[in-house]
Amino acid sequence: MSAPGNGPAAVPAARRRPSRRAVRTGTVLASCLVLLVAAVVVAVRVYDREPTVTLLANWTGKDERAFREAVIAPFERKYRVHVDYQGSSAQSQVLSADVEAGTPPDVVVLTGPGELASYVAQRRLKALDGLVPEGGFSASWATPIDGHVYWFPLKADLKSIVWYPGDMTERQRRDAAGQPAQWCLGLGAGATSGWPGTDWIEDLLLQQSGWRTYDKWARGDLPWTDTAVRRAWTTWRDRVVGGGENERLVSRALETHYQDASGYVVKDPPQCSLEHQASFIGGNEDWKKADGRYEASGMLLGTGYSDAWEVSGDLVALLHETPAARQLIRYLASTDAQRVWSAEKSGFSVQADVPAGSYGAPGTQQRRLADTLRDPRAVHCFDASDAMPPAVRDAFALSAIDFLARPGDLTSLLKTLDTLRTDPELTWLPSVCDRAP
Description:
The protein has helices at 20-47, 61-79, 91-101, 113-121, 170-177, 195-209, 211-218, 227-241, 246-255, 285-289, 297-301, 323-332, 335-344, 365-374, 384-387, 390-405, 410-421; strands spanning 52-57, 82-87, 107-110, 151-158, 161-164, 275-276, 293-296, 308-318, 379-382. Helix 6 crosses helix 7, helix 6 (195-209) crosses helix 8 and helix 6 (195-209) packs across helix 16 (390-405). It is of the alpha/beta class. The relative contact order is 0.17. Strands 1, 2, 3, 4, 8 and 9 form a 6-stranded mixed beta sheet that branches. Strands 6-5-7 form a 3-stranded antiparallel beta sheet. It is 45% helix and 11% strand.
């Protein structure tokens, strides 16, 4: 600020106006400068942009949002790698089409080790040597093929269990287990309809005939027409649609989506009280409302308790190897990512370094589920249909639907499945259970 003057204000000297030519020249120079700056900005964005990794998984809607926020966003911030995520409930079909088109995602999450094994046979998957913690996952979760590991679970679930309302007594549960109308069942699941039925048949075979028979069957070495396999099918039919209410129960099972089956528990009056379903269903709002508890399936199916458990998981695999994709694989196998996502999805991590305390105090329901999944003394057998080649898996699921609708066709169904089993072009896993011979 200038000091106040004591006399008249000074008059500035007159300024010469610039010529039109000078104005035009300045304008042109300014425009060139603007264009140059823009070009530099674009160049920086092109040549210094974050690397991208493509990821295909089955989480959509609110699950996709949760996955992005809990798992993907921290990875992107920490490693400055952009994840181009695609979620689809029909990811198997999407992946197959992308592979055929020559545009597979870098990383994929699938529920089927049998499907992944077929991609190994086609030399589509990359071995994860050095990317997954050594000894981090047991053989039932990360099955070695030719000495290499090609996948690992991001989240795991326990399947050999039955859910019931918290106010049911033990006697009430035993009585209900013998009444087909008391079993909640929905076979609908879009492109994968029928799998809740295959879960029933698999678990019955495991509990009735033991893990060695189960493992042999799931690896394609036991005929579908074997007495033990047939017994599992007929036991399932008798449990869920036996008695005089056959037609009504069949219709209910065929017309209900598996995610809606739990809703029958909380209807007024309740229309069923027991559900043979994996541990993830405990997070369902209907089971929360019913104060859902679980019991080992053998105890309610009349086969007794055993240390053999059917399990499932969301498996991560690498199709296109880039530095960014390798970094994402390392991250998804890490303790932090495993703990965060399993907690977010009400599932479980079986990564050895994830502390058991992540699932609550000993004796709580979540902790007991986690302890069973991680118990080194138990036998963990991967979901058999998921472990089978895709053609057999899909035929099995459709056969479960057909069998409830036409139970008299069982012999024909099993012979057809056995014909598929003997196809020499199929790839079967070398083992399905932890203690496979």
